[in-house]
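Figure S7 source data.
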Amino acid sequence: MAERITGYTELVGLIAYPIRHSSSPAMQNEAFAKLGLDYAYLAFEVDNDTLEDAVKAIRTLKMRGSNVSMPNKTVVHKYLDAVSPAAELCGAVNTIVNDNGKLTGHITDGIGYMQALKDNDIDVIGKKMTIVGAGGAATAIEIQAALDGVAEISIFNRKDEFWDNAVKTVEKINNNTKCKAQLFDLQDLDKLKEEVEGSYLFANATGMGMKPLEGQTYVPDKSFFRKDLIVTDVVYYPRETEFLRMAKEVGCKTMNGLGMMLFQGSAAFELWTGQPMPIEYMKEALDIKY
Ligand code: NAD
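Tokens for the predicted nicotinamide-adenine-dinucleotide complex:
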């Protein structure tokens, strides 16, 4: 690092709180170094109270951009000059690009998920998927899947504080894309089974299966899965959730959340540098298996 950083080095940030645990700095810096790109990526503890100043600093310090995570993802757009169509529909931004003082917000989580599918030779375009979730990760995936050409999306969620968001997501998809979206209560397990039976892909986009819900799933038994069903999870710690374990037992092709994490970072990397991340190298360097 001492040899790499110079007076010309461009800075990219990550603004969130808490953030010290993030694996993004290691991932982004590894990729910059591998390609010999003169950038450095640092995490900054920024919450909603200091967000406006932090965004001003991106302009003042002529930073190339930043990643944005919670609690700032859903509020940072008000300090930006423009947002991408996907970020507009999601109501969230996870990447800022600074083009000579003009700050544009993007959301790369959904792009990351769709890219991870492609990288796994899974082609859901023109087909139907069933997905559980109505939070940040789920919304990004649902919007991007619809924008990319998934034909039908059946969304399930609990009737909790995220339900209204799912109602809005379904409206946005049906009003702005060619995809047909429907929302169902996750309590209706007969309906869940029926929708999964007609789907090519079944996705978990909630924290179910991760601490404090490790070892748990809302799928009551293996009859929800069939051999030719693709089953994916946004969770990557643990690498194999109970949801994926059950699916694997039936013989389904599965994908954990590591690919989404890698490719959301890769999409941001490309927005800042104009170059694709060295994906195969990154998989080896970070021991990414999904
Ligand atoms: P969020 O808080 O925005 O949403 C939480 C979602 O979980 C909601 O849909 C909520 O209804 C549902 N939920 C919570 N408890 C539940 C329960 N007991 N039963 C059923 N549903 C329940 O969270 P988020 O930011 O969307 O993150 C969700 C998961 O996605 C987390 O595990 C997070 O680590 C993971 N994630 C992964 C990536 C990646 O790159 N792989 C990116 C973002 C988030």
